[in-house]
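haha ok so turns out i had the wrong file open the whole time. this is the CORRECT one, sorry everyone. sequence first:
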Amino acid sequence: MILVTGGTGLIGSHLLFHLISNGNTIRTNYRTEASKKKVHKVFGYYSDNPSILMEQIDWVQADITDVGGLDSLFDGVEYVYHCAALISFEPKDFKMLERTNVEGTANIVNLSLKYGVKKLCYVSSIAAIGPSIKQKEVTEENEWNEAKANVYGITKYNAELEVWRGSQEGLNIVIVNPGVVIGPGFWKSGSGTFFTYASKGKKYFIPSGTGFVTIKDVIHAMTKLMDSNIRTERFILVNQNMTYKELFQKIAPQLGVAPPTKKVSKFMLECFWRWDWVRSNVFGKRRKLSKSVAKGLYRQKIFSNQKIKSELDFTFEDMDKAITFCCDRFKERV
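then structure:
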C-alpha cells in the first residue's frame, strides 16, 4: 500500500494518476468532496475513464494537522509520498503555514516511524534552498539563510528538518525540491495563474525569473527515487531556468494573445509592496506582494539540476511540449 498525502493538489493528483495507472494500491487523504472533483478533472486529461480510476483509490477524509485522525491513513502502508502543504507568501499566514507544513510534516514522519514505513519521499521546494553565492548556480549544498527567505520557504525548510530528524531515527527518506511546477488543472493557483494571466492579454511582466519543471518530470523523479536505493538525499528538480518574460512568450501566443512587453520596474515593486502593506494593515485586505517576495524578484536565481541527472541518469522532457499541452487543456476549461 502506498500513501499519498495531499492527493488533491497539483503534484498529488498527477502522482495518484501515475501510481494507479501502474497497478499500485493507493490511499490518499482529502478534506472536501469538492477537492476530489479537481482530481477527477486531472484524470480526465489523461484517461477516458477517470471515474473508474478514482474508484480504485482508498479515499480517507483526514487533515495532516489532526494527529488523532491520522492513524487510519497508515494501516498497511509501506511507502509514503508526502505532498500535502500550504502555499502562501503572506507574512500573516505564518502560523498557519507552520502548522500545516512543519507540524503536519512532523506528524507524517512520526507515524511513518510508528508504522514501520519502508521509505518516505517529501516534496519540498526550491524556496527551501539557500541563496546564490556570488551569482553561481544554486545547488543542494547552498547554505540556508533564513534572513533572505520568505515565510513559505522558512516553513518548508523547517519541514525538511523534521524529515531529516526522521532519517536519524531510522526512516529511509528522499527529499525533492521542485521549481515552479508547470502542469494543468489548477488554473487559479500556483503556475496555473500564469496561464490565466497570459490569457487576459496583460501588458506587464514581473522581472527576473526562476527555475521551472514540468509535472511529468516531478512525478518521474519522485517515483524513480522511491524505487532506487538512494536515501537520505535531496534533489533540486528544475528543467529550465527562465525569466518570466520568456515564460509568457511561450504561453501567450498559444492562447491567441500577445505576450506582455512591459517590465515591472524595481521602483514600481518598491511602491507596490509598501502600498500593499498599507492595504493589509489599515483596510484588512489580503496581501498580494510581501516585501520578501518583492526583493526576490530583483534578481534571478539559476538552479542546477546536475545532481538528479547524474545520480539517476535522469532526462527532462521537452518544456515547450509540456507548455503546449497545458495551453490546450486551458482552452478546454469550462
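The mean pLDDT is 90.
again sry for the mixup
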